[in-house]
Amino acid sequence: MDQISNIQVVPCSSSNYLKPFRVHYSQNGTKKSWDFMRTHDSVSVLIFNTTSHCFILVKQFRPAVYMCEWEKHTPQSPEDKVKEGEEKEESEESHGDPPTAAAGVTYELCAGLVDKPDLSLEEIARQEILEECGYDVPVSKLRKITSYRSGVGVTGSKQTMFYAEVSDDNCVGEGGGKSQEGELIEVVKVPLPESMNFAFDESLPKTMGVLFSFMWFHSNMAPKYKISTNV
User: Which prosthetic group or cofactor does it need (predicted)?
Assistant: First the structure.
């Protein structure tokens, strides 16, 4: 996760995960168009370990986040670098030192795509908890928090968020994702008393799901664990 090299920006002619479209429509008599991306819906899970009173997050390298930082170190955008299918490596025309891999590493909730039509959302969430974090959680122990639309300007896909309480007894593996699929995931524990400071620490890149779920926990579960909600 610490070393990123041989960066290449190339045209994306096809993808199993993203499909770009342009829709033309009329709204109140005005003709409009909008570009959007069709993607899978997803699930995410806020995991709380009742043995150690900590949240279980995952940490992984996200190329899209890294490229946003990478662009700050080169005068040309990725689109300018790719012309007529020509591939150019970042090292050829970089200006200044490129960002370290840490620039693309984010803290996230355990999550996964809804791409298994034979499984329920709860069953998909259970699989992701086991694969990414190493905890075996019965489906009956998953509590739905809410669902919402993410990336509404680009994708509009739906994410359903769950809450799961685990204990050390539920830990049956190290997690880390499926290495055969190229996943490289680090399991991170955030102590409950430090969680809100963690959530609002801008030096730690994280998803909105982390902020929202931590706030939800402090609003709904804090009395159960007799904790202060003061940051």
Answer: Mg(2+)
Report whether 111 contacts 179 (CB < 8 A): no
Q: Which two tokens stand for residue 183?
A: 């996943």
How many Cβ atoms are within 10 Å of 216's Cβ, its own excluded? 15
Of the candidates 35, 13, 17, which has an alpha carbon nearest to the alpha carbon of residue 85?
13
Residue identified by tokens 């909008």 is 34
> Using one digit for the tens of pLDDT, what is the confidence trace for 40-88?
999 999 999 999 999 999 999 999 999 888 887 776 655 565 554 555 5
Q: Which amino acid is at 85?
A: G
* Token couple for 29: 């008599």
Q: Parallel, antiparallel, or unpaired: how do β-strands 42-49 and 110-113 relate?
A: antiparallel
pTM: 0.86
Other CB atoms within 10 Å distance of the CB of residue 37: 16
Nearest to residue 61, comparing CAs of 200, 214, 212, 205?
Answer: 205
Radius of gyration of the chain (CA): 20
Neighbours of 70 (CB within 10 A): 20
